[in-house]
Design goal:
single chain; eight-stranded mixed sheet; alpha/beta; 14 strands
Length: 559
Amino acid sequence: MAGIRPENWIEAPVELHRYLLNLRERWRSGVVAVVIVLVAVAGLTVLQKPVYRATNQVFVQAVPGTGVADLNSGASFASQQIASYAELATTPFVLDEVIDEVGLDTTPARLANDIRVTVDEGSFIIQISATSTDPRIAAEIADSTAENLQVAVTSLSPVSTARSVELRVVAGAVVPATPASPSILRNALLGIMLALLAGVATALVRSLLNTRVRTAEDLQGTTDRIVLGAIPSSRGAEVASRVLVESPYGVASEAYRDLRTNLQFVKLVEGRRSVMVTSSLPGEGKSTVSVSLAHVVAMSGARVLLVDADLRSPSMHRVLGLEGGAGLTTVLIGQAELTEVTQPGGIDGLDVITAGAIPPNPSELLGSPAMERVLDEASRYYDVVIVDAPPVLAVTDAAVLSQVVGGVVVVAQSERVRRAEFERALAKLDAVDSHVVGLVLNRVRGVSGSQYAYGSPDAHQAPTDDQEEIVLDDRDLDAAADGEPVTSAEARSDAGSQADGGGPASDTGAGATMPDATSEAPSPRYPGRRKAVRRPASRRSEASERRELERLSSSRGER
């Protein structure tokens, strides 16, 4: 125990957990390997010819003599010679006669491979087993071998001992009814074991040989890098950049909110409010992350400016449906002011500057003092400036632009970028002293979670049978907000008709109030909208009884 370090106790479960995660991630490869092995074993079993085995038994005994000494010497001689007799059974001296008797078209050497002679320790019984694709031939070979072995022992023994030992067949070979091989049960068990081993080995080998970034641990490596978020793959959305619009309470939307929260705690370069979003390779989703991040930050109440600084392959104008003729390049060359090319981003607090015309010298423009002045001016009008930059390994634009922003966020798509490529991109940014504030793992597969997050309207339980729906209009909502009793629209219409003489004074009076827990504040986004409020049936019956008692008591007083 003294040689086992405590840190090794922790590393062993961690390694086991990592292997289990690799198996879970590569289970499809394992299943394919299992199926292939099972099909191969089944095919070999079907194609293999059935082989039958017949066995007989030969007893080696000492010939009785005239005295006890003769019996002892005969038994000792038999026990010493029985192993030699077993070897003699598979020699050409015996098998040549067997081939002639049975009429086989083979050689003694090949026939010896089909005959197995065994002797148990301390036993005087020789077991001769013969195999053949014909069950009758197998039995004939076993019997013929036993008979010719008897003749061979007699002819080869010295004259003085020829009558000391005798071989006698005590159990003749029986024609087998079922084949000895292939054994379906044995092959099935062997196939299952091989399939499981092949499946596990395939999954582990593929996982170990796969050098692509898959998890947040792959991003962190052996350093203390900060992973700001992991964005799951979005299914069902027309484009990934609209996931916040099409599924605002989905798992991906919540992941972007987590990214926004974590980004609030990173430290940017002093005096700069701009964050550059880039990636190692093209197509890793950096633009999608930039758009969605700008949306969630603007939804929190901040003023956000989204800048498309990918002057080689701009995409913001297509993603957001904006004008792309004039934009960042127009400002950098001095043909327009920042406010003149700013376009609304579709939600309150978000403005967008598209890339504009593609210039012949994008690196020089992004590294010019004009770009730094644009970001400084934008920082005076906006709380956050998000800059979508080109990939790091593709061109040098991102490395140049990283010198004039407050921080860099590097996006890595799961199962796309290799760890060596990702490390090379970070090394390229470190070479120019870029301030990398965090990493984002994008399009992570297999993230579990409900389609709707906790507290979303679509996640609320549908009304049950013991609840009634009461429709409230603006007057009811205002009354609920002021703490006054809430009357349903139907009750108020009945009361109004009663006041006009249009109906009896029944239990539709103004005394039916709703509990405070069921009242809702008016929505400023939908003025005049009528809302449905759920009320338990038990409370409804109590209110009805109370109104009925009040009506009866008032009618008695009038009498």
